[in-house]
Amino acid sequence: MAVEATHRKIIHIDMDAFYASVEQRDFPEYRGKPLIVGGSPEGRGGVVATASYEARRYGVHAAMPSKTAQRLCPGAIFVYPRFDTYKAVSQQIHEIFHRYTDIIEPLSLDEAYLDVTHDKQGISSAIAIARLIKAAIKEELRLTASAGISVNKSVAKIASDINKPDGLTFIGPSKIEAFMEQLAVEKFHGVGKVTAAKMNAMGLHTGSDLKKLSETDLIQHFGKPGKFYYQIVRGIDNRAVQPYRETKSVSVEDTYQEDLTTKAAMLPELELLTEKLAQRLLRSGLKGRTVTLKFKFHDFTIITRSHSSAELMNSKETIFPIVKIILDKAPVEEKRVRLLGVGISNFEIADQRKKDNPDGQLRLF
């Protein structure tokens, strides 16, 4: 078994349909109904931030254009996000986490890794701690969470998604390789739709198929992520849970089945990416001053172009005009662009943390 000799005890907690669940908790008239948080009422624009499980039965999911969501689920109720409320609830969730460990790595307002190898209450069992955390969230906050438990972050994250909602899944050291071998490639963390399609075209459908390829082969076909695929299918992920991680930049990107060759074709794709980026920024409470566009060409060469503003930005309305300025100046017309990315950096948050937290301890929530 290719894992560490001394196993960590890692829990990945993922709240169930977090924003929608908070809305249904706070407003009884939404309970039991298909609810979509984000976008615009009647699906006039924007993207879905999250959807209740009632809406998910119709195929609605996060990052879907709200027009598509409305078409799939005509009876859905659209509500605007209340991010201040979600942040406050996230803080309450983290207070529950801190009863058991201070080694917490937030990924967003609604999910985090916890290292409970040496827990504060001497419970020793990661499964028992996960159950206590889930019970506290349900009893005190009237929300549900799903937990994945394993010896590393990658497997714990995958496990938390298996029995949603309100699930708890433990994958022990002796079970990891068999678990990863039977896993569909699209379930691997970091494998998007385009990569999964490429893998399927190569006859790679499960972890077992990936395991037949050498590390060199995987890197050749998939670049640097190939090394990660080689390791994780064998149960290897030695990354530690990183508490108080400071975000330097936030970005989104997409790879296209057909190359984009004109700026006119790139602009609507960049608008969609900007919308997704704005959702991430709102979830994390970040505002930045520097916007960066990333272009990957058909020959895999990459260029980036950036533009800084005195204004702090975290919305599509403030970011997209900068995106258009950068695109207008970028040398990409009549080039074959395979991937586009939009990112933002130079955050206000770092300076603000110094003011709010003079003792130097970084607090993300």
UniProtKB/TrEMBL annotation:
Details of cofactor binding: Binds 2 magnesium ions per subunit.
DNA repair as UniProt keyword: yes
Domain UmuC residue range list: 10-192
Annotated TM spans: none
Pfam families per UniProt: IMS, IMS_C, IMS_HHH_1
Residues carrying the site annotation Substrate discrimination: 19
GO biological process, alphabetically ordered: DNA repair; DNA-templated DNA replication; error-prone translesion synthesis; SOS response
Residues bound to Mg(2+): 14, 110
Family: Belongs to the DNA polymerase type-Y family.
Complex and partners: Monomer.
Function: Poorly processive, error-prone DNA polymerase involved in untargeted mutagenesis. Copies undamaged DNA at stalled replication forks, which arise in vivo from mismatched or misaligned primer ends. These misaligned primers can be extended by PolIV. Exhibits no 3'-5' exonuclease (proofreading) activity. May be involved in translesional synthesis, in conjunction with the beta clamp from PolIII.
Record's protein name: DNA polymerase IV
Species this chain originates from: Niabella ginsenosidivorans
